[in-house]
Amino acid sequence: MHIGIATGKVAGRLVGPAMPGRVGFPLAGLRVTLTIDPAQMLRAPRATPPVLVLPDPINCTTDATGLLLDEHGNPGVELIATDVPELELDDEPWSWRATITAPVISRPISWTFELPAGTVVDLSTGLLAALQSLAD
């Protein structure tokens, strides 16, 4: 993403529980949707040129090994960082929301996360926390 605004990356590999003789099986074909939360437009009026980020979802999937792929089939997803001071959302903090859906999951699993500039966020860590909160 080359819009003159700092980015971070979301990456990860998702596997299912252990099976007899296997450490875990890859969760291929999961649908991962990444959205701005709250779903509003972000403005970067001081960027050159000025930028308006629309809250369109970014649709990703996992490959045969459970690896997160972007919309073009590349490993990981580059996103605008949540700690970029030049982005405005009516002076409100914002984050990214990940939602995972798949036939092997009974209902969508969703959580929010921060993405500091220049970092890589592990999608599997957020998923684990979301699953643990569902169990509580």
Describe the structure.
This protein is mainly beta and 136 residues long. The chain is built from 1 helix and 10 strands. The chain has one helix at residues 123-135, and strands spanning 7-11, 31-37, 42-44, 51-53, 58-62, 68-69, 77-80, 95-101, 109-113, 120-122. The strands form 3 sheets. Strands 6-5-2-8-9 form a 5-stranded antiparallel sheet, covered by helices on one side. A hairpin with a 6-residue loop joins strand 3 (42-44) and strand 4 (51-53).
Key descriptive features of the protein:
mainly beta; elongated; five-stranded antiparallel sheet; 136 residues
Unreliable stretches (pLDDT < 50, length at least 5) are: none
Shape: elongated
Distance between the termini: 38 Å
Q: What's the order of the H and E elements?
A: EEEEEEEEEEH
Query: What class, by secondary structure content?
Result: mainly beta
Mean pLDDT across all amino acids: 83
Instruction: Provide the spatial order of strands within the biggest beta sheet.
Output: 6-5-2-8-9
What Rg do the Cα atoms give?
Answer: 16 Å
What is the total tally of β strands? 10
Give the proportion of residues in helices. Answer: under 10%
* Largest pleated sheet: 5 strands, antiparallel
Number of helices: 1
Beta percentage is 25-35%
